[in-house]
Specification:
376 residues; 2 domains; eight-stranded mixed sheet; 11 helices; 14 strands; globular; binds NADP nicotinamide-adenine-dinucleotide phosphate; oxidoreductase; GFO_IDH_MocA-like_dom; Gfo/Idh/MocA_domain
Length: 376
């Protein structure tokens, strides 16, 4: 029997609609038999918007409660977990209130605006014994699971160099300065919005590599170009170096970038190993194809499906856009009494937020007073 997991959604905006559409996809279409999902409540700052959201995205289901406040959802007994889809700088308050109400939490990326907020939330989640996870959906997609398997099965050797970029044209000259991508009060800019995606690949391929033994990057560098419109970063480059130590034998670099004015074609992700390269095609937040180029053709020739030139290509098909895999993870973790995911645990979100704090510091991006609810 599948466990039916009941979701309450906070913030009736764009990303919440994407998540809910995927939640309503029959899990059997992706081979999932043990968990299923139900949306039971929507919370908005306006009850009319909550009801409109239900009518549009939850098939007008009369059993779904519409609330004109987020607290209504936190207090609803028919909700197992809260999905937080508000702008970055509202994640902390919503997540803390949900945790204090005893609800499990899946919170959009970036999980908070800084690392201090995240440390406070993790402590609260532990105190209240609830599951807490950043919605790093890419980590749970079948392509990421397969890349990780190939990266670590041995024939490629250790990773040495990783390049990843995510950019998009947000038409910043023509959107209101209050848009969340431009407004510093909402943590606007490229790093917090797009940066999690190049970074997730560095975490998967380098931080998670067994040779690294969960070592923190030895060096982090960051450089930002700011838009004169509001002062948020329009273009950011950051690098991570992993150097050998008593506990790690990894020697690798990640060169990561993001931008809010550049459109396709995006370069995707390239992970270069001692004996080959993995090339992941964009979009890097939910890629559907990648190839492995083995430098040692003798090894490639023995790989099932590899060409004589040492190339192995993989594509992935599923119904939905890829947000549902993280929902399956939450449902399973909660069913099994876990407080964090093994695939995207608290340590990885903390690593992300510590890196972003450092890159903002080096890039000279200071939030306006009051944006970070916890600062030390
Ligand atoms: N995983 C992904 O692929 C992905 C993609 C895009 C965005 N995101 C993340 O999801 C979050 C929301 O992004 P979005 O594009 O959905 O944003 P959005 O549409 O601008 O806002 C989402 C909702 O947040 C609520 N909200 C609460 N306080 C707000 C305020 N002061 N200003 C504006 N909205 C406020 C609003 O809902 P109510 O009016 O109903 O309360 C709004 O509809 C961000 O953290 C972003 O990084 C993730």
């Amino acid at each position: 029997m599948a466990t039916t997991f009941r979701w309450g959604i906070i913030g009736a905006g764009w990303i919440a609609s994407c998540f809910v559409k995927d939640l309503l996809v029959d899990p059997k279409t992706r081979g999932v038999q043990d968990v299923s999902h139900k949306v039971t409540a929507i919370g908005s700052r306006s009850v009319e918007r909550a009801q409109e959201f239900i009518d549009k995205f939850v098939n007008g289901d009369k059993e779904v409660a519409a609330y004109g406040s987020y607290q209504g959802v936190f207090d609803d007994k028919n909700v197992d977990a809260i999905y937080i889809g508000t702008p970055h700088t509202y994640h902390y308050d919503a997540a803390l209130a949900a945790i204090k109400s005893g609800k499990h939490v899946l919170c959009e990326k970036p999980v908070t605006s800084n690392a201090a907020e995240l440390r406070s939330l993790i402590a609260a989640a532990k105190e209240h014994k609830v599951f807490f996870m950043e919605a790093m959906w890419t980590r749970f997609q079948p392509l990421a699971l397969e890349v990780k398997k190939i990266a670590e099965e041995g024939s490629l050797g250790k990773p040495v160099m990783l390049h990843a970029d995510l950019s998009g044209d947000f038409d910043i000259e023509n959107i209101p300065k209050s848009h969340r991508i431009l407004d510093p009060q909402l943590g606007g800019g490229a790093l917090l919005d797009l940066g999690p995606y190049p970074l997730v690949w560095a975490i998967i391929a380098l931080y998670e590599n067994p040779a690294n033994n969960k070592g923190f990057p030895t060096t982090i560098t960051g450089s930002m170009l700011k838009t004169p419109l509001t002062g948020v970063d329009s273009s950011t480059v950051f690098t991570l170096s992993f150097t050998p130590s008593e506990t790690s034998s990894l020697s690798a670099l990640a060169i990561l970038s993001c931008n809010i004015t550049l459109d396709a074609p995006e370069p995707g992700v390239t992970i270069r190993f001692e004996r080959g390269t993995i090339i992941i095609n964009p979009p890097i937040y939910s890629p559907r194809s990648f190839k492995v180029v083995y430098l040692n053709k003798g090894v490639a020739g023995k790989k099932e499906g590899a060409t004589a030139h040492g190339e192995l290509a993989r594509t992935f098909e599923y119904v939905g856009k890829g947000w549902h895999f993280q929902a399956d993870e939450v449902a399973r973790c909660v069913r099994d009494g876990k407080l964090e995911s093994e695939l995207w645990g608290h340590d990885k979100s903390l690593l992300e937020m510590d890196i972003f704090d450092e890159v903002r510091k080096q890039g000279g991006y200071v939030f306006p007073p009051g944006v970070g609810k916890v600062t030390a």
